[in-house]
Amino acid sequence: MIMIHDFLKPALFLAGIAHFGILVASANAPKALNWRENLEPLPKLLRQMFWVYGWFIVLMIVSFGTITFVHLDTLATAGNELARWVCGLIAVFWFVRLMVQFFVFDAKPFLTNWFYKAGYHGLTLVFTFLTAVYTWAALYPKP
Fold first, then answer.
1. pTM (two decimals)
2. CA 35 to CA 33: how far, in whole Å?
3. Secondary structure (3-state) at 9
């Protein structure tokens, strides 16, 4: 008999893939949002900080995807308390990112074509999926 918990490991595997998919979308953001020109009026330090913060976020996403792949079995079965905390941390990260998507960012001026609109809404779905999967793994791991 197949149980709901039997889907946690495949869901986490898809979540690992999703992290690297997000990076593909993120790689297009500087050009799509014309960062070079739009950030030019800012003082040099603020431009540098913007880019550094962006790279730190990229490193976190790479880390989340890599940890998920390398420790898939441990995360899916909550092999130890640390696995649940890691899943909880990743869930909180994506939940906060999702809330920023809804309540902070005003992307409308940049959603100028169907491709950007599809990407924006697609990322919203991915952030929701990641929040749900890692919350599931943190709170209800496979016994």
1. 0.91
2. 6
3. helix
